[in-house]
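Changelog excerpt

This revision adds worked examples to the README so contributors can see how folded entries look when concatenated. The first example is reproduced verbatim below.
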Amino acid sequence: MRKLAAALLGCLLLTGCAASWQAGEVRYKIVSFDDSTPTELFRLELVGEAPKGALDPSDLTRLSNLKSDVSGGADVGDEVLCLVEQEKGSAFGNSNVVTHMRTCRKA
């Protein structure tokens, strides 16, 4: 029984350092369009402050998103609302914060 308890405690410690964060919608402005490669990208800049609770607020200031992932016919100069997630791995794996931008729509 003690071995089982120790094993469970060890598992909790290993996974306890992992974290994730998801924002409802974050407002960005499309500042440029990159079509130099077959993958067409919008370059986005955060409008206002980073949402509270973000694991790495500085990582939210400038992001890129596929043009095809932005709905509503957005173009350079428009503002979009995007679903954003951040994940941080455990101390024993990749402990860097990774930011994922999901879907965006014209504001």
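The second example, added in the same revision:
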Amino acid sequence: MRATDHHRQPPGDEPATARSPLRLRAVLSVIALVWAGAAAVLFVFLGRRGEGESALFWGLAVVCVVIIVVAAIDLVVIARRARM
């Protein structure tokens, strides 16, 4: 792909001033950060209690941390693209 291809007008009848989905992605990433953070804290608390299925709670806490990392990386990518 040539450098000038990036700025070409797309074919078809798409609007020339299409709205970027970056704001929606940012909102969804922030929501994911908040919910996954709260869930991770809850699962760590339940896992530390050591009752019954504590291994399950620790596993769910790890899944929440992975979601937090992915959402944070997405926010960094969104911020870089918004500045371009």
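Reviewer comment on example two: The radius of gyration is 20 Å. The chain has a mean pLDDT of 85.
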